Amino acid sequence: MSSDNTTPEGGLVSIYLNDHLAGSTAGLELFRRAARANADTEIGAELARLTAEIEEDRAALIAMMAALGVPRRRYKTTLAWLGEKLGRLKLNGRIVSRSPLSPLIEVEALRLGVEGKALGWRVLRTMADDDARLDAGRLEGLIARAREQIDVLDSLHQRAAERVTG
After folding, report:
1. What is the CATH number of the domain that holds 45?
2. How far apart are CA 34 and CA 114, in angstroms?
């Protein structure tokens, strides 16, 4: 394996994609938790639908990494998974129950994650111009889907904010 930073399997591109994979691992766990926690609310169905899309997006990233010959750094995904679990311990004004702020904060975190994912797709889309192992059309579709996910999360954020602010 080359350590050349200009090849996907080496150096900076490998680090970058593994960092995105770690982020997608934590993000997917947060999507799953938020969908479960809000299952009985108006935003629960939307979060469940988005969770399925996020699972597909993560699988697409893994497939692209494989196509590029980028090895997965499992320690990064394990640490991200653990970090999401530890993030649940934050103080929220409640001891054993969810705070009314929880849906608002969760949607904000989810939106940040999707925005980061969209930026990663854009980097890969740029790489696709010079690397036939990447499907430019597929990446265009993933970029468009991320924009749609952001729009849905913006709507959910507005609803959650209205519940908190009255």
Report:
1. 1.20.1260
2. 14
Tens digit of pLDDT at every position of the chain (166 positions): 344 555 555 688 998 999 999 999 989 999 999 999 889 887 889 999 999 999 999 999 999 999 999 987 775 666 655 566 556 555 555 555 667 788 898 999 999 999 999 999 999 999 999 999 999 999 999 999 999 999 999 999 999 999 889 8
| Residues 6 or more apart whose Cβ sits within 8 Å of residue 153 | 50, 107, 110, 111, 114
| Placement of tokens 């009255």 in the chain | 166
Taking the whole predicted model, whether its pTM rises above 0.90 is answered as no
Q: Is 2 domain-assigned?
A: no
